[in-house]
Every structure is written in structure tokens, then in C-alpha cells.
Amino acid sequence: MIIDDFMPKVGESSIREELINCLRGNPKTLPSMYFYDHHGSELFETITKLDEYYPPKVEVPLLRSTAQKLKHELENCDLVELGSGDCSKISVFLDEVPEEIRRTIVYYPVDVCKQAIEKSACNLQDRYPEMNIHGITADFLGHIEKIPAKRRRFFCFFGSTIGNLTEEQAMKFMTDLGKVMNNNDRLLLGVDMVKDIDIIEKAYNDSQGITAKFNKNILNVANDHLMTNFDPEEFEHVAFFNKKYSRIEMHLKAKKDLEVTSPFLKNQIVFNKGETIHTENSHKYTVDGINKMANAAGLSVESIFNDDKKWFSLVEMVKQ
Ligand code: AVJ
Fold first, then answer.
1. Which residue lies with its CA nearest to atom 13 of ligand 1?
2. CA dihedral 279, 284, 285, 289 (to 10 degrees)
3. Separation CA 142–CA 137 (nearest Å)
4. What is the CB < 6 Å shell around ligand 1?
5. Contact present, 264 and 16 (Cβ < 8 Å)
6. pLDDT given at position 13
7. In the predicted model, is pLDDT for residue 12 greater than 80?
8. Distance, CA of 232 to CA of 252 (rounded, Å)
9. What are the beta bridge partners of residue 235?
């Protein structure tokens, strides 16, 4: 098993510059990619097991039924999963694929978290000894070209991770992906659909406060990179549905006036009581929105697989 590492490391100035710019912005932001250090990836795994967090509950059975329909398309291909995380989704998918076909697949998990890739690739190798695995740690938004293109590719982007991108960013990502895709390549995209706002908001305000911990952990990650002195407990977790943009927004709200210092900064970062850091967007889609996005990126929607309630979609796309 091979793992290629393309992620910048703690201590690299490019990360510090990005984070400082975000915290100096008005409004202040932190990119949601930084949730996923080792602890954050574990907290996210805990979130996926919460009753209120419905997306995996609908996506997992849908992955199973869709895999049964698409399994023959996987023969002799490179299976590239963007944002593979703990690899639990692809294993639901692969369980439906016959061993003779798995033998012909090379699986490429791509994720920003090196620990997640190492751990999950090993588990997966134990589960499917007949399959080749080649892990890649990369921020696939910027490094899509790092992904090998020797054979026909089947791209998977599950979990509605695309929902973290703004409309503009999602469009750029899809266009970049459309450009590197060849005629026989396919993309299977998991997207969370618009539904009752109450259900959506509960999923991001769970009663055990795990999502709050996950949100606040991004400040520990900022502390690791910037040597700042953020105290996560001085911030409140806020998550609500923004109708205008059809998305959940997560913010961290200062409980009092605060000053944060870093040896990499001349001046402190000043927070007034009530001021927020915008940490995440999680867009919810409509079929219309999906088609528009695909077309603008030079892709066409071949099929949409849904659950009964149409809460989640797996969208199969090909190059136009
Ligand atoms: C992993 C991006 C799909 O947006 O629902 C979960 C992350 N944030 N709870 C999502 C998340 C808060 C999740 N994604």
C-alpha cells in the first residue's frame, strides 16, 4: 500500500498566511477544511453516529442500493474518492461489488487528514485484501491534477462535502474536475437536499453538543498553526439555516470582548462581544440546482438516485 503526501505541514508559512488573512477579514472566517485535524476527524465520526445528524442515515442505504446498480461500471477502473475520511462510505459501496471486480480496481482515497488516510487505508486493506489501495493526502480543491489518470476513472465525492463550498467555489471545483475527466470517466456525487428547516437545523445543533465541540475545535487547530491563545470556551457555537443561500451556516460567537495574540502577528486580533467567526457553510441542493451546476461545468447528469423522502441524492455524471 502506498500513501503520497501533498499536504503542507504545521509550521509552513502558507497555512499561517491563509489563516491570518481569514481572521483579519471582515467578517472573520476560518476555512472549514481546518476542522479536520486528528481530533476533529474523530469528532466528525462521532457526529455521523448522532440521531439528529440525518445525512449518513439516508446516504448509507442509498450507497448500498446504488452500488448494486453501478457495480459493473467499476471493472478495471481507478476508483478515486475525494474526501474519503474514515472510508466507511466506500466500504458500504464496495461490499456490494463482487470480489472478482474488486480485484481489478485501484482505490485512491484522497483526504486532507493524513492520520485518517493511514488508519482507514489499513482497515480497508484488511477488509479487501484483493484490492489495490493508493492513498493521497491532498486538498483536492487545489490539487486535482495530483490524482493519477492512467486508466478509466470513477470519481466519488460522497457525504455532501461539496456543500461546504460556496456556489462560486463549487462551480470552480466542478469545472476543474470536468476538465480533468476523460470521456469514459464518471462522477458519483452525494448531495444533501433541501428539506424541512427544523430537521436541518437540529442536525447542526445536536443535544449532546458534539457539533459545538467540533466547531470550537477549529480554534485549537488555529492555535496549533498560529500559536494563538484562543480559548474555545470563550466562544459559543451558532448554527442556523440561511434561506437566501440555501445553506446551514456555522459560526463561533465571542461571549465577551477578547484579544487574541500570536508571535506571528504584530497586532492582536480584537473581538467585540457577540462578534463571530464564520467557520462553515453546508449547502442544501435542489434537482434544478444540481443540473445547472453540472451543465455549467461541462458535465451532464446521467442518473439521480434518491431515497424515498428525497432527502439525499447520489448523482451520476459524465462528461458532456
Ligand atoms: C462533512 C461537510 C458534509 O456539512 O454536514 C457536520 C460537516 N459540520 N456537522 C456537513 C459537518 C457540522 C458535514 N460535511
1. 161
2. -40
3. 12
4. 47, 55, 159-161, 163-164, 204, 211, 280, 282
5. yes
6. 83
7. no
8. 9
9. 254
